């Protein structure tokens, strides 16, 4: 067990305890068998720290991971209104985002670009990449505290996400899990999403969502949005230039605006990304690892990698703010 502990190294801000490391009572203790004794400890740490890393346990198949995640009392969720490509493994388990290996995925809270999201998210490392492929994480409360006051104030009313579904992004049929426009429109009505079918048959949606939220258990404010991922400044400069020339600045596949519809300057997101970088915690995956996060208290990302890598994901316990007006 000491070998397992000594191999856990992380980089990040000195003050963070994220993630709390939990190890087996004996070598290769089956994770499912350990769940009864671990549950109380995990539920103690999650609201205080935001995440736990379970290392050294036996998780011989993805099915055991699925049962472990389902063992916390909430049905596993399907991936609806998705923003990235991923594949269903079965039973509420999905692959992690299937972007090319050389690309980074910035820090984000899962589905924070919507008004309903999972409170719990689990990651299971089936195959650790020989180089890179980490899943960096960060404390969303610390991000909020570090964020410049002027940015917090400007984002307090929320952030507007605009998506144009076409040849340059995930097709709307995959996002809404249907090819029936009427079902898309019904989903949008239920979820406070404005949608319009354009003259060429493509779909545009616009939704005002939270940028800052209050955790329902701890009562603390968290930085909770994906504005920097959807904003045009997240595109490689040459891709952005080509798309703006081809489609026009107002018709990019996705973009974000202030709640009042004003354009968000690139410089704002340069400051936001600097805060995220300062709060990032990173560690190397080991095969068999399970990372469990409170999705509102901890953001996650993905580093580029070489070689084979397989990380699967489960989500549970929906929560949202559709029952109230945003500020």
UniProtKB/TrEMBL annotation:
One GO molecular-function annotation for this sequence? dioxygenase activity
Query: Carries keyword Nucleotide-binding?
Result: no
UniProt keyword annotations, A-Z: Antibiotic biosynthesis, Dioxygenase, Oxidoreductase
Task: Identify the cofactor(s).
Answer: Fe(2+)
Key word Oxidoreductase present: yes
Specify the superkingdom: Bacteria
Annotated protein name in UniProt:
TauD/TfdA family dioxygenase
């Amino acid at each position: 067990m000491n070998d397992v502990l000594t191999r856990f190294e992380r980089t990040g801000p000195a003050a963070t305890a994220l993630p709390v490391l939990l190890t087996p009572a004996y070598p290769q203790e089956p994770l499912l068998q350990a769940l009864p004794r671990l549950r109380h400890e995990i539920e103690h740490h999650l609201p205080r720290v935001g995440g736990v890393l379970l290392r050294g346990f036996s998780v011989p198949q993805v099915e055991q991971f699925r049962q472990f995640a389902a063992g916390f009392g909430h049905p596993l969720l399907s991936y609806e209104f998705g923003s990235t490509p991923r594949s269903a493994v079965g039973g509420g388990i999905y692959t992690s985002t299937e972007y090319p290996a050389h690309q980074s995925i910035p820090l984000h809270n899962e589905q924070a670009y919507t008004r309903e999201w999972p409170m719990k998210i689990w990651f299971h490392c089936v195959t650790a990449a020989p180089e890179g492929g980490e899943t960096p994480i960060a404390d969303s409360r610390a991000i909020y505290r570090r964020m410049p006051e002027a940015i917090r104030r400007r984002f307090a009313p929320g952030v507007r996400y605009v998506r144009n579904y076409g040849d340059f992004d995930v097709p709307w049929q995959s996002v809404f899990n249907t090819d029936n426009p009427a079902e898309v429109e019904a989903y949008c009505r239920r979820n406070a999403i404005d949608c319009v079918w354009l003259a060429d048959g493509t779909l545009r949606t616009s939704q005002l969502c939270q940028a800052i939220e209050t955790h329902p258990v701890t009562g603390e404010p968290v930085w909770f949005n994906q504005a920097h991922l959807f904003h045009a400044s997240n595109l490689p400069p040459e891709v952005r230039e080509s798309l703006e020339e081809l489609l026009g600045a107002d018709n990019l596949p996705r973009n974000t605006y202030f709640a009042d519809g004003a354009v968000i300057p690139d410089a704002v997101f340069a400051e936001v990304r600097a805060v995220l970088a300062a709060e990032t915690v990173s560690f190397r995956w080991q095969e068999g690892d399970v990372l469990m996060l409170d999705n509102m208290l901890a953001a996650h990302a993905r580093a580029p990698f070489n070689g084979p890598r397989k990380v699967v994901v489960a989500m549970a316990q929906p929560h949202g703010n559709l029952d109230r007006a945003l500020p």
